[in-house]
Amino acid sequence: MNVSNASMSGRRTSYSATSKWLHWIVAIIVIGMIPAGIIMSKLPKGPEKLMIFGYHTEFGVLVLLLVIWRFLTRLGHGTPAPVATLSAFERIASTSATHLLYLLLLAMPLIGWLAVSALGGHIEFFGLFQLPALMPKNPAVGKILLAAHKIGGISILVLVSAHILAALYHGLVKHDGVFSRMWPGGEA
Questions:
Q1: Over the stretch 118-143, which tens digit does the pLDDT of each residue have?
Q2: pLDDT at 112
């Protein structure tokens, strides 16, 4: 573990346990939703497509709720200072990617929900309740929202891939403590 100015100033050196677990739960769900979305878009109308669509929308709502929880946890517990060995480029790239991922992970479920509403559909949340429509039926707008959702999905795929590669680089090549700050049971 590298000692940084943050640890000497009393600022935490890793993320809270709640933040770590929320990070990994959301990561697993999102990594599963990307191929599900691709498969779903390729399937003809039928029961398989409807089943995948149902899971995709339910897990989308779950991601929205978990990301809001994670954001609130981040506000309440704060975040560690960047590791002292990071270059200026790495700090800017990390901060930019993190903020963009938060924005996309909040926007994507909302855009999907809007699209489903505009197309006249509804979203069930794991059989517990049905979400209200966010807008009246308007298929033309629904198609535009679906296109925006697809672009957002591609953007998330690119950002998540870059995030994974950067994490592996820090964990396997640089050994600078960045990876362990988000690993459950890592730096405390």
A1: 999 999 999 999 999 999 999 999 99
A2: 96
Instruction: Give the domain CATH number at 174.
Output: 1.20.950.20
DSSP state, 179? G
Is residue 21 one of the residues assigned to a domain?
yes
Does residue 188 form part of some domain? no
Report the pLDDT value the prediction gives residue 186, as an integer from 0 to 100: 61
Asked if 177 and 2 touch (Cβ cutoff 8 Å), the reply is yes
Is position 186 within any domain?
Answer: no
Burial (CB count within 10 angstroms: exposed 0-12, middle 13-18, buried 19+), residue 132: exposed
Question: Shortest CA distance to 108 belongs to which of 47, 152, 44, 76?
Answer: 152
Count of structural domains within the chain:
1
| DSSP H helical ranges for 121-169 | 139-168
